[in-house]
Design a protein that fits this description.
The protein is mostly helical. The chain contains four helices and no strands. The longest helix is centred in the middle third of the chain and has 25 residues.
Length: 87
């Protein structure tokens, strides 16, 4: 794992930076609709990042893409139900 972090440090830096920025926006935003938008955009970013990352290490395949898509969809549904039931 440490070797992979060193080898793909730019990939992980971009993910960490966007995660941190999203978290700051999420914690400072008071309008519920905007909070949901931030979370949704983060899900889209994570999916795109994951596809590019898997592609760069030559492990991209249809099952991997579907796994990321299903994971993100499940996470978004769970967050919607738990924290944004009125939307």
């Amino acid at each position: 794992m440490i070797n992979e972090l060193k080898k793909h440090s730019l990939d992980y830096f971009l993910l960490f930076a966007y995660s941190l920025i999203s978290l700051v926006f999420l914690l400072t935003e008071s309008i519920v609709q905007k909070r949901w938008t931030i979370i949704f955009l983060y899900g889209i970013y994570y999916f795109i990042w994951a596809i590019f990352h898997q592609s760069s290490i030559k492990r991209i395949s249809v099952p991997i893409v579907l796994e990321y898509l299903l994971f993100i969809s499940l996470a978004l549904v769970a967050l919607k139900v738990a924290f944004f039931p009125s939307l």
